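Practice problem 4.
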């Protein structure tokens, strides 16, 4: 099994996936907080490396980092409403943080064992940092009130160990208050990261829903056209058939005339249904262009449309089929890309009308939502009915280009 190219893998991610990867690693870096402090203390004080607390702090720091990474991962998954066992990892992380803080405080040097209070610098900040790193996942995986209670419980659990170091009551309470303020900042930051990622996914979901609504609106439009064609005619056929039955039972010769009229209406309905299926009957070129711009702009896609001065002079069948191409192509832009810009241009080349659509935001690897649609196949079939052609020339990396041409004569 080959090694995945990181650059290709990154290009294959959608924008929400890239955003989540960035925010996840931003949270993961917070889990590494105890390690730099431990290494800094050991490098600043050569004698600290021989002290039991330094070795315990290093071991507990490594274990705390691994557990905190897992707690961040499961907590973020829970915040994003994915199945996870985050509570188990939060409980393990919190318990390990409290135990590690007690071990560092109790094994570290006491304030009274050496002149000066600088010895406390070795124990209190390190114990507080361990609590900080454990509170980050809790602020993401728990509701704010429960996270605040968990943080307060952790600080109160460590307070007796602070007193046992020889620090005074005022010093210990000051350390607890200072730690609480830092935990509030860390909790708000971590919670904001998770909230931001959830907003990104909600916007992506709304974008997909918008694309589905565009398709659903198109289907409703088609059904309305079909209803307009068939509703009146089917009602007339039903009434005339019933009249023909009554006349036939009475032996009246007018029954044959009524059935002939039913046959005529049925044939006319069949012809109108073909028109609906072939051209949606009312695919106006200008109306479709205006609708495409409105739909794309509502999805934050900058849309530039240039139909030229000859659009109104095109034959009605050509305008109709090109309007349908704009409609279908716009739906494909919403469904199969993350476009930021889209351009639609119409020009005349000799005896053909050429519609060009180009957009960016095409992923290097197809999005999972793309599936195996039949949009391009339907475009080719509809253009072929008017002797037209569909081409997909190369538009460069990350771009998509579509050319639809229809002859002006014989269409």
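Answer key:
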């Amino acid at each position: 099994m080959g090694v995945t190219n990181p650059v290709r893998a990154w290009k294959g991610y959608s924008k929400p996936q890239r955003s989540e990867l960035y925010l996840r690693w931003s949270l993961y870096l917070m889990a590494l907080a105890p390690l730099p402090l431990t290494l800094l203390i050991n490098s600043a004080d050569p004698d600290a490396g021989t002290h039991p607390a330094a070795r315990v702090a290093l071991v507990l720091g490594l274990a705390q980092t691994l557990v905190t990474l897992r707690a961040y991962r499961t907590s973020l998954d829970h915040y994003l409403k994915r199945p996870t066992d985050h509570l188990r990892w939060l409980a393990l992380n919190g318990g390990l943080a409290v135990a590690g803080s007690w071990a560092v405080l109790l094994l570290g040097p006491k304030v009274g064992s050496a002149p000066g209070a600088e010895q406390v610098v070795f124990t209190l900040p390190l114990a507080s940092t361990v609590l900080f790193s454990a509170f980050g996942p809790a602020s993401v995986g728990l509701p704010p009130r429960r996270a605040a209670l968990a943080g307060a419980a952790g600080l109160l659990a460590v307070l007796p160990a602070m007193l046992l170091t020889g620090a005074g009551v005022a010093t210990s309470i000051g350390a607890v208050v200072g730690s609480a303020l830092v935990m509030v900042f860390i909790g708000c930051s971590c919670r904001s990261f998770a909230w931001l990622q959830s907003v990104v996914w909600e916007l992506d979901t709304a974008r997909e829903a918008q694309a589905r609504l565009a398709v659903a609106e198109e289907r409703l439009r088609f059904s309305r056209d079909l209803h307009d064609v068939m509703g009146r005619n089917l009602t007339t056929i039903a009434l005339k058939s019933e009249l023909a039955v009554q006349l036939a039972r009475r032996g009246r010769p007018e029954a044959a005339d009524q059935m002939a009229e039913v046959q005529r209406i049925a044939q006319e309905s069949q012809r109108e249904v073909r028109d609906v299926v072939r051209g949606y009957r009312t695919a106006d070129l200008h109306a479709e262009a205006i609708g495409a711009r409105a739909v794309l702009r509502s999805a934050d896609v900058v849309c530039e449309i240039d139909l030229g001065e000859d659009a109104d002079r095109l034959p009605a069948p050509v305008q109709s089929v090109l309007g349908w191409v704009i409609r279908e192509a716009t739906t494909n832009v919403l469904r199969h890309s993350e476009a930021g810009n889209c351009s639609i241009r119409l020009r005349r080349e000799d005896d053909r009308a050429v519609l060009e659509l180009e957009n960016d935001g095409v992923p290097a690897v197809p999005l999972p939502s793309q599936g195996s649609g039949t949009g391009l196949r339907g475009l080719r079939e509809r253009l072929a009915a008017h002797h037209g052609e569909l081409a997909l020339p190369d538009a460069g990396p990350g771009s998509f280009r579509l050319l639809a041409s229809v002859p002006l004569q014989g269409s």
